[in-house]
Amino acid sequence: MTASVSVWLLTTAAILFVAWQLHRLLEAARRANRTDWGRGWMNLIDGLNRLFCYRYHRLNVTGLRLPRSGPAIVVANHVSGLDPLLLIASARRPLRFLIAREEYERFGLQWLFRAVKCIPVDRERRPELALRAALRALHDGEVVALFPHGAIHLDSDPPKRLKAGAVRLAQLTGAPLLPHRITGVRGAGHVILGVILRSRARVTLYPPLPVAGRDTGDVLDELARVLDGRTPERGRAVAEAV
């Protein structure tokens, strides 16, 4: 057997092996998918994200207690870039995240943010446009998700006043306000390291926060106590990466 034939056989075998592994991965992603995003390729990405969270981060999830239909508002503390992946992987409905416009326009990722219908927030010029888009989504029966701290914020950081958008959306629409607390992320404080480093992450779901007839500031204070870990964990741990 000549050297050229040997190289050709090895190359062909390598290509077939890679193709077989890719096929297996896509089949596993198809089976792992739990949320219908309205597009087949998006459902595959959903499955890949769940595999990533379940197998790499070993996410043990029983599922967020979202209503089967109708609007809802998911809020959580924000400790790393892993946070939205964990929330999406633990939900059975699409989550529409509000994110800063500069993040929405990040090179190479805008196509994905657009596909999952993220709502960009232009905090410098017209933040009310994002509020209106979120209101339309809730009126259409969708689930809106946001991080009221507005940026990564650790328990060790100085206390920070929460942004009122989530509470105002709940007051205007009557949608349930569902707080979560994320803890134990190994790469806490970082966007990329939070995704790369294996974590002992935990997502705890607390009871819906009542907003009707209450002062916005009082609701924000109660929400801050939950997100900053100053409220006992009455909620159920719904996701854990060991």
TrEMBL record:
Pathway: Lipid metabolism
Annotated keywords: Acyltransferase, Membrane, Transferase, Transmembrane, Transmembrane helix
SUPFAM superfamilies in alphabetical order: Glycerol-3-phosphate (1)-acyltransferase (SSF69593)
Domain of life the protein comes from: Bacteria
Record InterPro entries: Plipid/glycerol_acylTrfase (IPR002123)
Classification via SMART domains: PlsC
Residue ranges of the TM segments: 6-26
Protein's UniProt name: 1-acyl-sn-glycerol-3-phosphate acyltransferase
Species of provenance: Sedimenticola thiotaurini
